[in-house]
Design a protein that fits this description.
The complex is a heterodimer. Chain A has two domains: 206 residues, Multidrug efflux transporter AcrB transmembrane domain (Multidrug efflux transporter AcrB transmembrane fold, Up-down Bundle); 88 residues, Alpha-Beta Plaits. By secondary structure, chain A is α+β, with helices and mostly antiparallel strands. Chain A has a four-stranded antiparallel sheet. Chain A has a two-stranded parallel ribbon with strand order 1-6. Chain A is 61% helix and 10% strand. Chain B is an alpha+beta fold. Among the domains of chain B are: 99 residues, Alpha-Beta Plaits (2-Layer Sandwich); 114 residues, Gyrase A, domain 2, CATH 3.30.1360; 164 residues, Up-down Bundle (Multidrug efflux transporter AcrB transmembrane fold). Helix content of chain B is 51%, strand content 19%. Chain B has a five-stranded mixed barrel. Chain B has a four-stranded antiparallel sheet with strand order 7-8-2-18. Classes of the chains: A alpha+beta, B alpha+beta. β5 of chain A pairs antiparallel with β18 of chain B.
């Protein structure tokens, strides 16, 4: 067929000939991400910051500044307004029409009913045909819990993975995989700091999926490394690693492409509500694919791996 | 040559057939939904087919999601206040022996008493210990029962500290939450909404989900009020709150007039828990009001009270505010009456609902509130469907272009995979959310992974081997370890998400987790079956993967 043999590499790519440069780039990117995180911070959604969010639509043109003027000075605390891309631009079927303007209004205060009634009245007064599509209000008690749970979830995921790979492989593999994960998570946070996408609960879900995906990739490479280490006992580690990456390269590309195809469909057609989530996922797949080769394998090379994968090995029982 | 056992084909066929059967209602959602929810109408969906539908989350169907916290500490504080009043009156009688008696800590979860003569502290403890077995102390309607010996009494010099045992505290909390859930359920049911979910969450929280509700305002108005109604004797009325207050009296503000204050007897004549019914109605001037009926014992008490107090006012107090204080004009014997106030029709309706459903045992606080309009939900479904179809088609095309015939095998497996996920969601009664749809779309992308791993291995083996069937067999064997590792790791992420996530995120973890299981199943069994059948019946000389 058309694409058949597209990835059939007759020649090995020497991945480690440029891996030093990439290592520096990765380290630099991690550093920049951390600095960005501390300087710019993340654009936390109300899940993590607490507050009330209104998603409204109107067929009339509303100016952001008008909405801001209407709401400021009403003792609502910090007010932020952004125009959302219409989830229905591409849809003909739907209750909302593509000409509708959709806004996200975030207000610092919560206090349930009062704020909701107040903002509704203010906005209805200004824009009579306004529709309230979604209202979310998260109190500070819950938001701090959500932050804690989110961080715990990511931490647990990383630790469980560390343990799993340690059991299935060797500690060097586990370290390599976990470094790759940390690399992916930090870079994702960095990108969210720059692009100001909202960082909310669904982004935590995306981070965990990225962890799963990145690992998926790393493990496939590692699996091949382990197999090749057994088969080519005298080959230098660098050659074994390079061979393994080349062996699995077409699979890596195939799976990344199919996943990205699905994700891009979701990004462009799935609506505004999950766009941040799909963006994180797309970024995660790209970074995860990169890191499984250039971070995980590179660390394996640096740490060096024992070479006697023999049957009498005491750990063999756990390597099913 | 491949072995085709009857069992293998039978097993795969059964799984595929039953999943198709269980997933099928979802492809005719509106038809089946109509059949389920309006059983009287004849439906075109046949009876012999299952009618299990995937439950749609609030973000897809619209509705209100509320996380409430019941302030159980208030109930415990009230208990200690009540205990203090009783302990005090009993200790005061022994003032000669004990000296001065003071409560020094009113922080809530304990009662600390200081007495003048520390040498007689054992005597005081003995007195207090009598309350340990007094069930009467805790016998109000919403307090729940207290087991015997549940007060922990300790002393240090001239101080006595009384606390609840942990077990008693937990029992009390549990009862308060259970009662709250019951009251909340009654109130939510009054709004006439379809299938609300009300469940306890954690120690002090209640999760309320009401699908189909477009605005949370009415719901909050119903849940925000404790609705504790009492009828109290009025001692005096003034425009300032500085009354000389006795121990059995309290100062309460007025609902209708900000500058008006009432001095009331603390002990109510009758209270809302004795109501048997409450209905919105109108008073003699045609203004909205609420009429009510008492149970017989309260009717008798109320009758006697009105007989003895003709001409003096009495106060109707709702949540510590006097809503009206009419003057008793005559003896009211029948145990029925009418509450007037500055009500609108809506407010009188609401008050009637609140009184009928009973008072909440404690105040509740709204921690989290999410309202999703029905338009947004519908559009999210449409957007999700479209993304799934387009994403699916892209992946199918790509697989076909990359692997040809084997790609088509994988594609059929992929479609079965989606059907399997839908069937499992329906059978398990799991909730599909928008992130859940994202999980399915992501599964579409990742599901081919297992197939790709196998195909790539087979390719390698073909390059080494001449025997077609051996290449396939070895390809599957060698890919297995990678498939297991790769999927277990993603599964770890899904499981963690399930336990840490809430609402929509949980929905994502469910579809992701199910997708992992089904994708491994389809790749290892279904694609393999296709390949084996192909080899058996076509006996290709050259295998092109």
């Amino acid at each position: 067929m058309l694409l058949r043999g597209l990835f059939n590499q007759s020649k090995e790519i020497q991945f480690f000939s440029f891996s030093n440069l990439l290592s520096y780039i990765s380290l630099g990117a991690i550093l920049v991400s951390i600095i960005l995180f501390f300087i710019l911070g993340l654009n936390y959604g109300i899940d993590f910051r607490g507050g009330t969010m209104f998603m409204v639509s109107s067929s009339e043109k509303i100016k952001v500044s008008d909405v801001r003027n209407t709401l400021s000075g009403s003792n609502l605390g910090d007010v932020s307004i952004s125009q959302a891309t219409n989830p229905l631009e591409t849809l003909s079927a739907g209750t909302l029409t593509s000409t509708d303007n959709i806004f996200m209004i975030k207000v610092e205060k919560t206090e349930g009913q009062n704020i909701e009634t107040k903002v509704k009245a203010l906005l209805l007064n200004k824009v009579p045909d306004i529709k309230f599509l979604q209202i979310e209000s998260v109190g500070s008690k819950v938001s701090s819990e959500l932050v804690r749970n989110g961080m715990l979830a990511v931490l647990f995921a990383v630790i469980s993975v560390l343990v799993y790979i340690w059991l299935r492989f060797e500690w060097q593999f586990a370290l390599g995989a976990v470094f790759a994960l940390i690399h992916d998570v930090i870079l994702t946070i960095g990108v969210f700091s720059i692009l100001r996408y909202e960082f909310n609960l669904s982004i935590i879900a995306a981070l965990l999926t990225i962890i799963g995906y990145s690992l998926n990739d790393t493990v496939v490479v590692f699996d091949r490394v382990r197999e090749n280490l057994r088969n080519f006992k005298s080959l230098p580690l660098l050659k074994v690693l390079n061979m393994s990456i080349n062996n699995t390269l077409s699979r890596t590309i195939m799976t990344s492409v199919t996943t990205l195809l699905a994700l891009f469909a979701l990004y462009f057609l799935g609506g505004d509500v999950i766009r941040g989530f799909t963006f994180a996922m797309i970024w995660g797949v790209l970074v995860g694919t990169y890191s499984s080769i250039f971070v995980a394998a590179k660390i394996l090379l640096i740490l060096d791996v024992k070479r006697n994968w023999d049957e009498e090995d005491s750990k063999a029982g756990t390597q099913f | 040559m491949p072995q085709l056992s009857f069992f293998r084909i039978f097993f795969i066929a059964i799984v595929c057939f039953s999943s198709l059967l269980f997933a099928s209602p979802n492809f005719f959602y509106s038809t089946v939904d109509k059949k389920l929810n309006s059983p009287k109408q004849t439906s075109s969906w046949p009876d012999f087919l299952p009618s299990t539908l995937v439950k749609l989350g609030l973000d897809l169907r619209g509705g209100v999601y509320l996380l409430l916290e019941v302030k159980t500490d208030d109930v415990i504080r009230e208990k200690f206040d009540f205990l203090w009043a009783n302990v005090r009156s009993s200790l005061v009688k022994k003032r000669k022996e004990l000296g001065s008696i003071r409560r020094i800590d009113s922080s809530g979860d304990q009662l600390k008493i200081e007495i003048g003569n520390s040498e007689n502290i054992d005597f005081a403890i003995k007195e207090i210990d009598k309350f340990n077995s007094s069930t009467e102390l805790f016998s109000s309607r919403w307090s729940g029962s207290v087991q015997k010996d549940t007060l922990k009494i300790s002393s240090l010099e001239n101080m006595i500290t009384i606390t609840f045992s942990d077990e008693q505290k937990r029992t009390l909390e549990k009862q308060v939450i259970e009662q709250s859930v019951e009251i909340i359920r009654r109130r939510v049911d009054e709004t006439g909404t379809r299938e609300p979910t009300i469940q306890r969450q954690g120690r002090k929280r209640v999760l309320v989900q009401v699908p189909g509700l477009g605005s949370s305002e009415e719901l909050l108005a119903l849940l925000g009020k404790t609705a504790k109604l009492t009828f109290n004797e009025v001692v005096s009325i003034d425009s300032s709150s500085n009354f000389p207050t006795k121990l059995d009296e309290m100062v309460v503000g007025s609902e209708q007039n900000n500058g008006l204050f009432y001095l009331l007897k603390k002990r109510p004549v009758v209270s809302g828990e004795n109501l048997t019914n409450a209905q919105p109605s109108f008073d003699e001037n045609g203004l909205p009001a609420v009429s009510f009926n008492f149970n017989p014992s309260a009717a008798l008490e109320f009758g006697n009270y009105t007989k003895d107090n003709i001409g003096s006012p009495f106060a109707i107090v709702l949540d510590n505010v006097v809503i009206s204080a009419p003057t008793i004009r005559s003896h009211i014997p029948g145990g029925s009456g009418i509450i007037t106030g500055n009500f609108s029709v809506e407010e009188s309706n609401r008050l009637a609902i609140l009184l009928r459903s009973g008072a909440l045992p404690a105040e509740i606080e709204v921690l989290e509130l999410r309202t999703i309009g029905p338009e947004l939900g519908r559009d999210s479904i449409n957007a999700g469907k479209l993304a799934a179809v387009v994403g699916g088609l892209l992946v199918l095309t790509f697989m076909w272009l990359s692997y040809g015939l084997f790609g088509i095998f994988a594609n059929v497996a992929l479609m079965l995979n989606i059907i399997l996920v839908m069937a499992l969601l329906s059978i398990l009664g799991a909730t599909l959310t928008l992130p859940g749809i994202a999980g399915i779309v992501l599964t579409i992308g990742m599901a081919v992974d297992a197939n790709v791993l196998v195909f790539e291995r087979i390719k390698e083996e073909i390059n080494k081997n001449s025997n077609i069937y051996n290449s396939i067999k070895i390809g599957y064997e060698k890919a297995l370890s990678s498939i297991v590792d790769a999927n277990v790791t993603t599964m770890i992420a899904a499981v963690i998400l399930f336990f840490f996530g809430s609402g929509p995120i949980k929905g994502f973890s469910v579809t992701l987790g199910l997708g992992i299981i089904t994708s491994v199943f389809t790749a290892l069994l279904i694609t393999r079956l296709f390949i084996d059948l192909y080899i058996l019946f076509y006996r290709p000389k050259v295998l092109r993967v």
